[in-house]
Specification:
The protein is α+β, with helices and mostly antiparallel strands and 347 residues long. Helix content is 29%, strand content 27%.
Length: 347
């Protein structure tokens, strides 16, 4: 028997049952509803005594100070793409997860799983890129591990990160309140469209947005604006991230319907029937804060590297209506989280 539940971005069965036993599918790693169910029904249930956080990073109260801690794994195909590579991605992804809690990233670990047959020149290129990106982000790679397995020449990287918390900073997906403004720091979907173009051998000018956002977040936190929520928009896209925030805070979110990406990515999506709302980024931050601070926050972000296309894109509403977007006809369409697998694997 096979169970299927296809939605926006779904291209494969979201669950398979063999002989009464459910099996993992690619959709469980896509960052959408199946990923959430897997985390809650397997990991949170069994790790509950450890207070597993449903955030991009955990905040730990140590005797001497507060730190943020996170870990992530990277399995992107192809390994090298316009605007980045698996090495840069591994550093940016972990650094940006720490930033979502308002932490200053300091230290990373790097674990490599290498498939037999991998070109050593490709490995060194990725490692060199990691080092360059770490310098850009102001972090040090201080420990690591390497394993070699049978395979076809692939490479997988796991990075963990530690960041330092200053003062009583409290930025969390649970802190959105009615009346807050929703800001997106850049065009959505560029990384996803770049990876898909590379895999399909489509020639265009789309490059990945893969970037460490330290400068942007530091400027916001020192700029006198009261940030409630920050989330980097990765797997599952902007729509899925907003649904997670709405559920965590017990609020609704209404998007204005203004364009969220650039013309080239939108054209690419139109040709392939994709929705930019469900396409992942690796250098774009969603920020939620009081409406009175919104214009100032956008001005701050636009002065920062990687933030020139920041815009206010919606507001937080009372109730638990989920996420909606204004349509061209003036109505409102409900936007749920990603269901199924959003191809390709982008991180």
């Amino acid at each position: 028997m096979r169970i299927e539940n296809k939605g926006v971005g779904a291209t494969a069965p979201v669950a398979r049952v063999y002989g009464g036993i459910m099996k993992i599918t690619m959709a469980h790693g896509a960052g959408g509803r199946l990923t959430d169910e897997l985390i809650r029904e397997v990991f949170v249930k069994n790790f509950s005594e450890s207070s597993v956080p449903l955030e991009d990073a955990a905040v730990l109260d140590l005797p001497s100070r507060r730190i943020a801690y996170t870990t992530d794994s990277f399995v992107v195909t192809p390994l090298f793409f316009p605007g980045g590579d698996i090495g840069r991605l591994a550093v940016c992804g972990t650094v940006n997860d720490l930033l979502t809690r308002g932490a200053a990233p300091k230290y990373l670990s790097a674990g490599f799983i290498l498939e037999e047959g991998l070109d050593i020149d490709a490995l060194e290129k990725a490692v060199r890129s990691m080092a360059e990106t770490a310098r850009e982000a102001g972090v040090k790679i201080v420990t690591g591990d390497t394993k070699v397995i049978e395979g076809r020449g692939g490479m997988y990287i796991n990075t963990s990160g530690i960041g330092v918390m200053e003062g009583d900073t409290d930025i969390s997906a649970r802190r959105a309140v009615s009346g807050d403004a929703v800001i997106i720091s850049g065009d959505v979907g560029c990384h996803h469209a770049c990876i898909l173009s590379a895999r399909m051998e489509i020639e265009n000018g789309i490059t990945s947005d893969c970037a460490p956002l330290n400068g942007m977040v530091a400027a916001l936190l020192s700029g006198g604006v009261a940030v409630h929520v920050m989330r980097d928009v990765t797997r599952g896209g902007f729509a899925t991230v907003l649904n997670e925030i709405a559920a965590a805070s017990g609020v609704g979110i209404a998007l204005s319907g203004e364009p969220l990406t650039n013309g080239e990515v939108q054209g690419f999506c139109d040709i392939l029937g994709l929705d930019p709302l469900y396409m992942g980024c690796e250098g774009v931050m969603a920020v939620i804060l009081p409406e009175s601070d919104a214009e100032r926050a956008v001005d701050i972000i636009r002065t920062c590297r990687y933030g020139e296309n920041a815009r206010i894109t919606g507001k937080v509403t009372a109730g638990t209506s989920g996420v909606t977007i204004k349509t061209r006809a003036g109505g409102h369409r409900i936007i749920g989280p990603l269901i199924g697998e959003g191809l390709p694997r982008i991180c």
